[in-house]
Amino acid sequence: MKQPRLGVRLKEARQEKGWTQAELAERVSVSRKTINTVENGVFIPSTLLALNLARVLGAKVEDLFYLD
Amino acid sequence: MSKPRSRADRRRRAVIASAAVLVIIAGGVITSTSAIEMGHPRNVDLVRTAGFMLLTLVIALRATTGFTLLKPDAAMNDELTRANRASAGRAGFWAMMIGAWLALGAALYVPITLLEAAPLLLAIGAAGAALRFSVLEARGDEAA
If we measure between CA atoms, which residue out of B128, B111, B118 comes closest to residue B28? Predict the structure, then answer.
């Protein structure tokens, strides 16, 4: 069975808030690179980081990440 | 404004990585081929070998662990960086394994002493880890 891929809507959620990658990174205490690679689907974040991102963006985790 | 800065950053990383690899390998070759009299190393041999060992140690630590003499910064050691370091550690391990296999095979045909093989294996391991880490970190700078 083909493994599902992780879809990401983080960029859209961040832009709705009007934040830069650096501003979001600072709010969740990670580097801008981490936000960049998560948005590009290069890096799959841990559950802890996904929950943290959802909290600071005022969204649910499944609003930010989904199975493609 | 951010694009030229990002390109410059990638170029800087590439230069640093290349220079580090060059210095490591050059140090390894010089150390391994220098004529050290067994049991009677000169002071220059001791200093050169100790310096080379320290260089490979520092590069391996920087590429595969969060070791720093400065105040630790959580954002500089976040989960992406830790994942990159784990990948760099694997790359360094396999580079060293391949180097050891090649050295073992070559030793069947030409005499190779530990004094010659060890510096090269250390150089290959440290350089492999450093290169992998640099490439992965630079990937994080790619444009969104």
Answer: B118
